[in-house]
From TrEMBL:
Domain Rab-GAP TBC: 514-701
Superkingdom field: Eukaryota
Function: May act as a GTPase-activating protein for Rab family protein(s).
A GO biological process held by the record: system process
Protein name per its UniProtKB record: TBC1 domain family member 8
One function term, GO molecular function aspect: GTPase activator activity
One Pfam family recorded for the sequence: RabGAP-TBC
Organism, as annotated: Leptocoma aspasia
Gene this chain is encoded by: Tbc1d8
Length: 1152
């Protein structure tokens, strides 16, 4: 087929291609390894090269595979050639060659200029491939058929349950050492799978996303662009993708979604389209990536769903021209970003829009629309594709917003139990507010006034009431403030003063200089778009205050404890006015969003917000910070802050390599920075300087904190490189930050009360905050939102896995003192336990996952498994192999360990059970077996079950004799009598809780278990004989007790009536459900079945009389081989079992 002309360097291609034909302008080449017979001399050019070329040739499938033949356009005198055609067969490529000879070769001779020849040929070829290209595109869009083929292969090769949905697949190479293995990479909702059948060898890899610890694009010696997947035990490199960028983006999304769904389900909220893993598609993941970027770039609420992304141009009055860029439309916003980074950004909430109109289409203004807003401003967009549909959709969403029923809150019945409802107000499950009811505006205003009077909400920012006007140097500060205010007024005139203002590089420079005190609160509201939330939800805050005040819970207790620690040096928080406002805002937010509630550092941030904003405005600013500007920061694990801390560590390595080289372990520096992110420098920098940092944060988001942190480290780099330890480095940074001043501030000088001080009174140079911020933008301001979001994806994996490692270490620390299992074996056992939990969670609903995994619980209780999962582990790990009886014993063991009867057990239960089986004394093992055959482990149904065993054993009527070495048969009745006396005495002196006695049916089940445990043991015959003897003895002991109870006599008297003789017909199986009657000569009184009992002490004493049984229970057992086998087989056995189960369940309806 014809190819779009692309330049190739023939010099570098000679090792891969052989020239077969050439003319003055064209060359026909064949790929090495195609068409070479076994005896061909060309085959001897190197085995390694052949393998590599063969792998490359097999990388792509069908039409997309590297073709073995091609035609190049040759420019005389140049080393650069252009590929213009390729073919899968010699016949196909020869047809193209003949066409060139007949139609172009003679024509080219008339051109004198080489460039004209190239242009002419390329134009002809492009015309030829136009129709072919369109047909190929149509084929690619008809993906279902090819995808179905890939799905069939995926299911047959990996045998997952049907719920394991395949998302997409790619042809690529997996590197095994220095050798590439060509094959297929399958990406499913829970796994990364690779299959290769290469040179007669089959390779299968299954990597669960939840076990991925690092996912990155890297390079190795052989390939310049590789995807590296790192797990706890191995690194895998994948390369030679058709589109590595797309493949990596999908892998990144799948890893992020799956890890957060399974490991971070405490706070993580999935987009609606991703709630059901079985319905996720490649398109959904691509849409999620686009949505995440959109919300991060414009810092919009999580509920916003992106609808259209359209290239267009926007009229920018300040530059008197149309600026090329992209329009983004969502549920409640129209946003614009220029193609030139930082040139212009606009955010238009639909609630600010009055009209959206189409203008007349002209050559100067193609496809224009006008968006008019309430501030009597209009935005003109042109060059909009599919304008009519876009305008229609925008008008529909505008109507929804104006009617008070946005698209994203039309399903209120799905609110979770933590959502709040005050009268006609409601919130979504993720604690985002929706809309108020339909009460009239007059009524609302009246009720709000009454409530404000009742609660005395602050109508002004606290700085207005607690401003000090007698500070030295205040006149200079006031003049500087006036200059700034004048600059801002000029800016507002030109760029707008509402939330819909044009945001350009100029406004960033004004923000870096410091926002004037009089404008700070208002601009924070505009930059964060908290102004839109405030205007959209009148009365919402006062409703929350009314509902939350006076209620006591853990959050309110923590709030009360921290109230007087919030800027205690500031006069506003030395009075009840400031303290009461802070209490109301924090309590209202904790009531609004119970998932977050209250976290430390929220008090410091909120107190600063109250200084510059009204109380209700401060509340909405807090909402903006906690729920969209710093996502996942404010919860008990502070995952978001730790992710950014890890990103910051990477930025240090990139931007400050000398400092990173000196401080080999950057963990200490990154740990110091945690408070920077959580409090936006408010807790470690003087307040008058830190508020300038908050200015930049509200305008630029987390990027401002990253770049300022780098600027601080660079300014302190020399001292840090000379520091001797982490403690000294901490003191250097604390001293530096304490001396960051703001000479222009009108605030009273308030140092931070969390600073570290040392005896070293060495003076530090003063740093001006404006200069520090300017340096941060100049030197480190190049990072884009997209880059930061990609780094967050990468480091979130590491942080979540680090939390999992911490959980594991804490669980092991709790369990190790209570068991005798080796620590390394216990660690492997924990990994198997957790994997068993995850295997089940892969294909269950999120509610089922959250039941078994709760990060808020104590470490030892975070992961739990159910009976089916326990049975699977029991089969793999138990030393007591009982054949068909194993599953029954596993479920009894589970019921025994499930003390709180919630049908789930923790790791400690499994570890303690296996510890008894492998390391316990004989009496502990027998006690465990005994407990497994009495309630609650043994149920009534199991007690009455029929025995699957067929081998007849001795009955109670068989004489009790012990074979001695001298051949004499010794009557055993006297020994039995003495045993009963000893046990009675021991029972009287025993202080611990006595185990319940075992009934005859329970005893029969106990015997079944013992019998099944001895199967295939080397001493099987001896063990059967021994257990038969012990069983006979115990049955007679039980009968003695039964007779004693029925006749009211002591056991001593009745022992003498035991009959030593028995008929052959009485030698029936022990394991029957009917109770054997005593010998007819003894004529016992009729008794009920329940009177027959035997105690644990009886059983233990009887078993101790048989040396073969003692040897069996006391022989040393190794757990490690079982663990190794389980590691190899757990995954395949469980997935295969679940796959068969799901298929059988799926087949049931068709069988009816």
């Amino acid at each position: 087929m014809w190819l779009k002309p692309e330049e190739v360097l023939l010099k570098n291609a000679l090792k891969l291609w052989v020239t077969q034909k050439s003319s003055g302008y064209f060359i026909l080449q064949r790929r090495r390894g195609h068409g070479d017979g076994p005896g061909s001399p060309r085959v001897a050019w190197g085995a390694a090269s052949r393998r590599l070329v063969g792998a490359l040739d097999a990388v792509l499938d069908s039409n997309a595979r590297v073709a073995p033949f091609r035609i190049l356009l040759q420019v005389p005198g140049s080393q650069v050639y252009s590929a213009i055609a390729c073919g899968a067969t010699a016949e196909e490529i020869n047809q193209h060659w003949e066409w060139l000879e007949q139609n172009l070769l003679h024509t080219l001779s008339v051109f004198d200029n080489k460039e004209d020849i190239v242009s002419f040929v390329k134009g002809k070829v492009k015309a030829l491939i136009a129709e072919e290209t369109s047909s190929k595109l149509a084929e690619q869009e008809e993906d279902p058929e090819k995808f179905r083929e890939a799905l069939v292969k995926f299911e047959s090769r990996f045998n997952f349950p049907e719920a394991e949905k395949l998302i997409t697949y790619y042809s690529c190479c997996c590197w095994k050492g220095k050798v590439p293995r060509q094959g297929w990479l399958y990406l499913s909702i829970n796994h990364l799978c690779f299959y290769s059948f290469f040179l007669g060898k089959e390779l299968k890899l299954i990597i669960p996303w939840v076990e991925v610890q690092k996912l990155e694009r890297t390079s190795n010696v052989f390939m310049t662009d590789t995807v590296r997947v790192t797990t706890a035990n191995k690194e895998r490199d994948f390369s030679t993708f058709l589109n590595i960028t797309e493949a990596f983006r999908i892998m990144e999304q799948l890893a992020d979604v799956t890890l957060r769904r399974l490991l971070d389900n405490e706070i993580f909220e999935l987009d609606p389209g991703l709630q059901d893993p079985t319905q996720i598609t490649k398109r959904d993941l691509e849409a999620r990536a686009q949505n995440e970027f959109f919300r991060a770039f414009f810092r919009l609420p999580r509920k916003e769903k992106l609808h259209e992304v359209v290239d267009c141009s926007l009229w920018t009055p300040f530059s008197r021209c149309h600026t090329a860029g992209t329009m983004y439309t969502s549920d409640s916003y129209i946003c614009f970003a220029s193609k030139e980074n930082g040139c212009c950004t606009v955010i238009i909430p639909l609630r600010e829009v009055i009209s959206i109109e189409k203008m007349e289409d002209t050559s100067l203004l193609p496809n224009p629309i006008i968006v008019s807003i309430r501030s009597k401003t209009a935005f003109q967009f042109i060059e909009l594709k599919d304008r009519d549909t876009l305008v229609e959709n925008l008008l529909q969403r505008l109507k929804e917003v104006n009617s008070g029923n946005p698209l994203h809150c039309n399903n209120l019945q799905n609110n979770n139990q933590n959502s709040l409802a005050f009268g006609s107000m409601c919130t979504l499950g993720d604690a985002e507010p929706t809309c108020l009811g339909t009460e009239t505006s007059q009524g609302k205003e009246k009720s709000e006034c009454e409530k404000e009077n009742n609660y005395l909400l602050n109508a002004e920012a606290l700085r207005a009431d607690f401003h000090q006007s007698s500070m030295p140097g205040l006149d200079f500060g006031k003049s500087r403030e006036q200059i700034k205010e004048s600059l801002w007024d000029d800016h507002f005139v030109e760029y707008g003063r509402t939330v819909c203002m044009f945001r350009t590089e100029k406004i960033r420079k004004l923000v870096a200089m410091g926002i004037p005190e009089s404008l700070r609160g208002k601009l924070w509201l505009l930059f964060s778009d908290a102004q839109t939330d405030l205007a959209s939800h009148p009365g919402y805050y006062i409703h929350l205050v009314e509902a939350s005040m006076g209620k006591c819970c853990m959050a309110t207790e923590e709030i009360e404890r921290d109230l007087h620690r919030s800027l205690p040096e500031h006069p506003a928080f030395q009075s009840e006015t400031g303290i009461a406002a802070l209490r109301r805002v924090l309590t209202a937010y904790a009531h609004r969003n119970p998932k977050i509630g209250y976290c430390q550092s929220m008090n410091i941030l909120t107190s600063v917000l109250l200084l510059y904003a009204k109380e209700e405005e401060a509340f909405w600013l807090l909402v903006a910070v906690c729920e969209r500007m710093l996502p996942d920061y404010f919860n008990h694990r502070v995952i978001g802050a730790q992710v950014d801390q890890s990103v910051f560590e990477e930025l240090i390595k990139e931007q400050l390599p000398e400092l990173a080289e000196h401080m080999k372990d950057l963990t200490a520096l990154a740990s110091i920075s945690l408070s920077w992110f959580l409090t936006l420098f408010l807790s470690i920098m003087p307040l008058e300087s830190a508020v300038n940092v908050v200015d930049c944060f509200f305008y630029d988001g987390i990027k401002a904190i990253f770049q300022l942190g780098l600027a601080i480290l660079e300014a302190s780099a020399v001292d840090l490189c000379n520091s001797k330890d982490d403690g000294q480095a901490l003191m250097i940074l604390s001293r530096f930050l304490e001396h960051v001043k703001n000479e222009e501030s009108l605030l009273p000088p308030i140092g931070n009360h969390h600073a570290f001080f040392s005896d070293d009174q060495e003076s530090s140079p003063v740093t001006e905050i404006a200069n520090l911020i300017h340096d941060s933008y100049e030197k480190f301001g190049d990072y884009s939102v997209e880059q930061i979001e990609h780094m967050r994806y990468k480091h979130r994996i590491r942080v979540l896995q680090s939390h999992e490692d911490t959980t594991k270490q804490n669980v092991l620390r709790v369990v190790i003192p209570d068991v005798s299992i080796l620590p390394e074996d216990l660690e492997e056992l924990y990994d198997l336990f957790k994997r068993e939990h995850l295997i089940r969670c892969y294909w269950e609903s999120r509610s089922a996952v959250s039941e078994r995994h709760d990060p808020s619980r104590p470490y030892a209780e975070q992961y739990r498994i159910d009976a089916q999962q326990f049975a699977s582990l029991y089969r793999l790990l138990s030393p007591w192999t009982c054949g068909e009886h194993t599953d029954l014993l596993a479920h009894r063991t589970f019921r025994l360990l499930d003390e709180n009867m919630d049908r789930l057990i923790e790791f400690k239960g499994l570890a303690s059970c296996l510890d008894v089986m492998y390391n316990g004394e004989m009496n502990e093992k027998i006690k465990l077996l005994y407990k497994l055959h009495i309630p609650p482990a043994l149920t009534e149904n199991e007690r009455d079950s029929q025995s699957p065993l067929k081998t007849p054993l001795l009955s109670t009527s068989r004489p009790l004799v012990i074979g001695k070495s001298n051949g004499d048969a010794v009557d055993y009745q006297k020994q039995l009598k003495q045993m009963l006396k000893d046990l009675a005495k021991e029972k009287d002196t025993k202080t611990e809780k006595e185990l319940p006695k075992m009934s005859q049916k329970e005893f029969i089940q106990f015997c079944k278990t013992l019998y099944s445990m001895f199967h295939e043991d080397p001493e099987e015959n001896d063990l059967y004989q021994a257990i038969a003897t012990v069983t006979t003895l115990l049955l007679q002991i039980g009968e003695v007790g039964q007779r004693s109870i029925s006749l009211g006599s002591g056991s001593d008297e009745f022992t003498e009536d035991l009959q030593p003789e028995a008929s052959a017909s009485d030698q029936d199986a022990v394991f029957t459900d009917t109770v054997k009657t005593p010998h007819k000569d003894s004529q016992p009184s009729p008794v009920t079945e329940g009177d027959w009992t035997v105690s644990f002490e009886h059983i233990l004493a009887s078993l101790l009389t048989e040396q073969s049984l003692v040897n069996f229970f006391e022989k040393p057992l190794e757990l490690k081989p079982k663990l190794e086998n389980a590691k190899l087989n757990q995954y395949s056995l469980r997935t295969n079992g679940m796959s068969c189960q799901s298929r059988s369940e799926h087949a049931k309806p068709s069988m009816q």
